[in-house]
Design brief:
- The complex is a heterodimer of chains A (about 190) and B (about 325).
- Chain A contains one helix and 16 strands.
- Chain A has about 190 residues and is mainly beta.
- In chain A, a hairpin with a 4-residue loop joins strand 15 (about 175) and strand 16.
- Chain A is elongated.
- Chain A is about 0% helix and about 55% strand.
- The longest helix of chain A has 4 residues, at about 95-100.
- In chain B, strands 1, 5, 6, 7, 8, 9, 10, 11 and 12 form a nine-stranded mixed beta sheet that branches. A three-stranded antiparallel beta sheet of chain B has the order 2-4-3, with no helix packed on it.
- Chain B is α+β, with helices and mostly antiparallel strands.
- Chain B is globular, with a radius of gyration of 20 Å.
- Helices cover about 35% and strands about 25% of the residues of chain B.
- In chain B, helix 7 (about 250-265) packs antiparallel against helix 8 (about 275-285).
- Chain B contains nine helices and twelve strands.
- The chains are: A mainly beta (about 190), B alpha+beta (about 325).
- The interface between A and B is medium-sized, with 18 and 30 residues.
């Protein structure tokens, strides 16, 4: 793989730091008037999700990380692995529970997710920004209470629990923003 | 063609109007004090030898020339010609300095006071800032005091190995064999600057290894220091001043040392400015001088977090 120099660091670039793939979030040149230039770099460790800040001398290099975001269809979970397929090549990839991480509670079969591959192996899974899922468990709906605030927990078919308005019932399909875990609206009554 | 979105200025028209008023106010400040404005050349055959400042090269009639990184050398030639107190408000250029607080072309205010020392000049820096920010808190401390306060280490006496270890901890392995000056800069920028108080903080008595064009001396505790100061406005480096070196022989020695360091770091060679040396041989009056980043001053006054927001067109838009 090639190397990147600090002056090429920009948000989104994937590099290897201490053996782990990292995504650069921010790169700021620091240059005391009479002093040597260096770069304050914020990176997200793609394995742990942790954000760290490092200082590099201007001109220092990091190895590029073979990290690729690929749209894939979620197929099934066989108990140990979550199976994803590239829609164009039908190539299948097995993601560990670690890689699936927080996406777990949003995954329903056939959904298209972004699977991040590191050296060809799934490193992390990002669910669609919005998913439509059925409520499988919640307190009975309060009829007519469609306008006022107030909410209750509802368990969805994938296992996620979200706060929903009081009028919703079991069996209804709702739209949820997976980035915030917030209820967006009712899609349809079953 | 995303680049075409960049045709518009980075600053709003309201900001540009404030910028225009600020420039007028700066000129007014010096006019009231009867200091002469000088508009010295931006293009010269000579340039600075500083290890860490690179000039942008240009060409005139097939002769290599340089966009000036500050008006300092020309202003000193005027001082040596008995100009008396002078100021310059214009552009300066530094190669490859682009970032949130940097633009390769920026507006620099620089002024010299004959017969003054750096402490008198620090007073005037505070007065100038107060005309823009009345009642602003002003603090003064020596480099040693602020360094010891934050890092419990005396920057003048600590040995190089210990300094390098601290720098490696704050930065990366790349500092393991760095010079004293570069280690100090890293530690100051990363561990001290962000913790300075609000308002104007004037730090004086810089380490002798960072003297640049300041006189060197001993402080009250017998430590070798340079008579250089820096001003930080809300934790941002804003101004750099000296009790100016007037000794031509010492100046020639520092140029030679810069050239040695440039060679060591495999940087392009730069010739010493012989006309400056000739001026100093003829006699540079005792004086103190300071340079201040005007764009950064505007950033602080307007609460902008990027230099692009206070200038018509930053490098990204050029």
């Amino acid at each position: 793989m090639s190397n990147y120099s600090t002056n090429e660091f920009r948000s989104g670039l994937k590099v290897i730091l201490d053996g782990d793939p990292c995504s650069i979030l921010d790169n700021e040149l620091v240059k005391p008037g009479k002093g040597q230039a260096f770069n304050r770099v914020k990176l997200r460790n793609l394995k742990t999700g942790r954000v760290l800040e490092k200082t590099f001398k201007s001109g220092e290099q990091l190895e590029a990380a073979d990290v690729m975001d690929t749209d894939m269809q979620y197929l099934y979970n066989d108990g140990d692995f979550w199976c994803f397929m590239e829609p164009d090549t039908f190539e299948q990839h097995q993601a560990t529970e670690n890689a699936v991480g927080d996406a777990l509670i949003w995954l329903s079969e056939q959904d298209t997710c972004v699977v991040t591959l590191f050296n060809g192996v799934p490193l992390s899974v990002t669910p669609p920004n919005h998913v439509e899922l059925e409520i499988v468990e919640t307190d009975p709906g309060l009829r007519g209470d469609t306008a006022q605030g107030g909410s209750k927990p509802a368990k969805l078919v994938t296992g996620a629990v979200v706060k929903v308005p009081l009028f919703l019932d079991q069996g209804e399909i709702i739209r949820v923003d997976t980035r915030t875990g917030e209820y967006q609206g009712r899609v349809s009554a079953k | 063609m995303e680049h075409l979105n960049q045709w518009q200025p980075g600053a709003t028209m309201a900001t540009l109007r404030q910028r225009s008023r600020a420039l007028a106010k700066l000129r007014d400040f010096f006019q009231q004090r009867q200091i002469m404005e000088v508009d010295v050349p931006l293009l010269s055959r000579a340039t600075v030898t500083d290890l860490n400042i690179d000039s942008i090269e240009a060409r005139n009639a097939n002769i290599v020339a340089y966009l000036q990184t500050s008006p300092e050398y020309f202003m000193k030639r005027l001082l040596a010609s008995d100009s008396g107190d002078i100021y310059s408000l214009g552009k300066a250029f530094r190669d490859a300095e682009s970032g949130r607080r940097h633009n390769p072309e920026f507006t620099l205010l620089e002024w010299y006071r004959c017969g003054w020392d750096e402490h008198q000049l620090m007073d005037e820096v505070a007065e100038l800032i107060a005309t823009f920010a009345p009642g602003i808190a002003v603090q003064r401390c020596s480099y040693a005091d602020v360094f010891i306060q934050h890092l419990q280490v005396d920057p003048h006496l600590v040995d190089l190995t210990e300094l390098q270890n601290l720098a490696v901890e704050a930065g990366s392995e790349a500092w393991a064999d760095e010079t004293r000056a570069n280690c100090l800069d890293l530690l100051f920028s990363v561990l001290i600057e962000p913790k300075l108080d609000d308002g104007l903080v004037l730090v004086y008595d810089y380490p002798a290894c960072q003297a640049a064009l300041a006189k060197c001396a001993e402080d009250s505790q017998g430590r070798r220091i340079s008579r250089r100061f820096e001003g930080f406005l809300n934790r941002v480096e804003l101004a750099n001043g000296y009790c100016e070196l007037t000794d031509a022989v010492e100046q020639a020695r520092r140029f030679a040392e810069d050239q040695r360091l440039r060679k060591l770091s495999e940087k392009t060679a730069v010739n010493a400015d012989q006309l400056l040396l000739a001026a100093m041989q003829s006699g540079l009056p005792e004086c103190a001088g300071v340079a201040m980043g005007v764009d950064r001053l505007l950033m602080q006054l307007q609460g902008a977090d990027a230099i692009d927001q206070v200038m018509p067109f930053s490098w990204e838009r050029c």
